[in-house]
Amino acid sequence: MMDLNEQHKQRFGELIRKEQQRLARVNGTKALPKNSDEAKVIAVLPGDGIGPIIMAQAIRVLSELLKDELVKKEIELRFIEGLTLENRLATGESVPEAVMAEIKCCPVILKGPMTTPKASDAGINLTSANAILRRELDLFANIRPVKMAHKGIDWTFFRENTEGPYALGSDGLQIDEDLSIDFVVESRTCTERIARAAFEYAKTNGKRNVTVVTKANIIKRTDGNFLNTCKEIAREYAGIGLEERLVDVTAARLTNPEFHKGLEVFVLPNLYGDIITDIAAEYQGGLGTAGSANIGTDYAVFEAIHGSAPFLVENNRAEYADPSSLLRAVGMLLNHIGKNGQATRLEKALDICGSTERRIKITSFREDASTEEYTDYILETLAAEYALQ
């Protein structure tokens, strides 16, 4: 019978082989995220917690902006069920196989937030459905814009989406009662892809610099390789500077005008990208103010950057959740499918409702607007802006 140490060695070897097989599928591609002007079907995944509530309002807005295309059946909204937490727990699959097959029929997906069971939940060890979708659909670029015109800030974050500590989040080793080990995954192949995506965006949009955020001074292999690969890609883009920042310093000082002066485009490994973009969104006005795109060469998923808000659900305030983050993602989706005019209209309405005019406030408290009431306000603003055109 194999002893415990040999079992762990064997398991570690299996994980290495699994990652090598994944990279063989990626096949060293340098492909960039691409838009889907020809998209005919948009899949809708409502999610958990507040997900179905904010998704219902997002669909109201999307249906208004695409009403002509929907009437003419040029675009279809296809609702896919089966990714509720209850169903995932019942099947024991983070993304049930039949649901994944449905999703793969749709190149563009609008997704609500999904709950991942905590490690402390007895008997449950499900990997994040988000992580599974990102890896299975090879959504290697997580793109999150943050804009504050009054502070001169126009940031775009490119977060590597398929590697880092999240890649093997449920595959760590519990060596004994005392020792546990998790893994960080980094490959030159995937770092090249996200770095090139960031530099191409900078080049296309007239940006002057790309800032790479790591802890390469301490994490010599994975973070060090990420930084060095970004430096190599930077040499291909004359006129675009490469800035280096440490993740802890960036987290501490991102809101400092002297620290972020002149910074425009960021490229980060998976975990750091998750943390820093949340900080940036809070600086902008809260997690509810920023949308997110997960883009690969064949699929694109658009979502809010926040989670399923169990606190609001448990306190009977789910119907007061702010839909703005998911609506920002709807705007990104519209741009992705070539509906730039509709995307611009929505962005302008969200700015008016969220900051410029702010006639109705949504705070998640019952004394302020409900999710539906706030969406009514956005739709009224959209109509008014359209009438002025």
TrEMBL record:
Ranges where the Isopropylmalate dehydrogenase-like domain occurs: 41-378
PANTHER family the record matches: DECARBOXYLATING DEHYDROGENASES-ISOCITRATE, ISOPROPYLMALATE, TARTRATE, ISOCITRATE DEHYDROGENASE [NAD] SUBUNIT ALPHA, MITOCHONDRIAL
Keyword line: Oxidoreductase
Species per Swiss-Prot/TrEMBL record: Trichococcus ilyis
InterPro entries reported in the protein's UniProt record: IsoPropMal-DH-like_dom (IPR024084)
Superkingdom, natural source: Bacteria
Name of the protein described by the UniProt record: Isocitrate dehydrogenase (NAD+)
Single GO molecular function: isocitrate dehydrogenase (NAD+) activity
GO biological processes: isocitrate metabolic process; tricarboxylic acid cycle
